[in-house]
Amino acid sequence: MSRQEAERKGRRGENLAAWYLWLLGWRILAKRQRIGAGEVDIIARKGRCVAFVEVKWRSTGAALDNAIDARRLRRVARAAEALSARYAKPGDDVRIDVILIAPGHWPRRIANAWQPGA
């Protein structure tokens, strides 16, 4: 798969993940927020919780099992830390979530996927 095709499919996966979150009652605050520390695919709010969401799209459900690792989560956590003052209010819970997407499969959501010090 070419880089351009992978980018296109990744964007489609992010859009599907945003719709999925919206259907679950989340309000999408931002998409594709880049900062020196990294990038956050989706920033969403539900009540007093702000989730910084990493989205991974893979061509098969089996490939999703290896789509996310500690290195990628650390990168998202650094970006979320830098961006949290912009999106989270005092007293809000802030967390890192992951949404895994593959054709023919329901999105798999991992809530609170990153624990500090992990």
CATH topology name: Trna Endonuclease, Chain: A, domain 1
Distance between the termini: 33 Å
Tally of DSSP helical segments:
2
Work out the oligomeric state of the chains in this entry: single chain
Q: How large, in whole angstroms, is the Cα Rg?
A: 14 Å
Low-confidence stretches: none
Order of strands side by side in the largest beta sheet? 1-2-3-4-5
Whole-number average pLDDT? 90
Order of helices and strands: HEEEHEE
The secondary structure category is alpha+beta
Q: Which descriptor suits the 3D outline? A: globular
Annotation, overall tally of beta strands: 5
CATH architecture label name = 3-Layer(aba) Sandwich
Strand content: 25-35%
- The CATH class is identified as Alpha Beta
Q: Could you please describe the fold and organization of this structure?
A:
GO terms for molecular function: nucleic acid binding. It comes from Novosphingobium sediminis. This is UPF0102 protein NSE01_24690. Belongs to the UPF0102 family. It holds the Pfam family UPF0102. By secondary structure, this protein is an alpha+beta fold. It has one domain (3-110): Trna Endonuclease, Chain: A, domain 1, CATH 3.40.1350. It is 33% helix and 33% strand. The protein contains 2 helices and 5 strands. Strands 1-2-3-4-5 form a 5-stranded mixed sheet, with helices on both faces. A hairpin with a 2-residue loop joins β1 (27-35) and β2. It is globular. The N and C termini lie far apart (33 Å). The model has no long low-confidence stretch (mean pLDDT 90).
